[in-house]
Amino acid sequence: MNGAPASRRAAALADRIEECAELLAAFAEGLSEAEWRTPVPEGRKDGRSVGVIVHHVASVYPVEINLAQSVAAAKPVTDITWDVVAELNAEHTEEHEEISKAAALELLLWNSRAAASAVRGFTDEELDQAAPFSLNSDAPVTAQFVIEDHALRHSWHHLARIRKALRR
């Protein structure tokens, strides 16, 4: 392969992953220290801070891509549940409460670019492959769906929540 994406669809997905990561990074870059530490209500008693959420988005790109690759290989994803996700998020919050803006943004850009690069390697056949996916009640979803609903949507989802919390 000459460095070209395996498919136009994969390239478009990868471009959108990078686009939102860059939007989230640009938004976060302009935040004050107080805004960076602001809790974001998410159905919890105490919301995670903006900084923890930005770091969270950055840190899960590899996991999200791995899940999509599993589905693309027709391997069912059976061990990831919303309870597991909640537990991992709680652990992440404890471990990264004091994350610096610079460190979180560096990880966000690095991991989003790596995720986009991996997505560019998907073929149309891989994007269309479906397998049972435990986060969606074991419904057989496609690898493209996993990419769109996780690696791509995740940044957009949290950016919207952060903007709402900061009223920006």
TrEMBL record:
<dbReference type="InterPro" id="IPR024775">
    <property type="entry name" value="DinB-like"/>
</dbReference>
<dbReference type="Pfam" id="PF12867">
    <property type="entry name" value="DinB_2"/>
</dbReference>
<feature type="domain" description="DinB-like">
    <location>
        <begin position="17"/>
        <end position="160"/>
    </location>
</feature>
<dbReference type="InterPro" id="IPR034660">
    <property type="entry name" value="DinB/YfiT-like"/>
</dbReference>
<protein>
    <submittedName>
        <fullName>DinB family protein</fullName>
    </submittedName>
</protein>
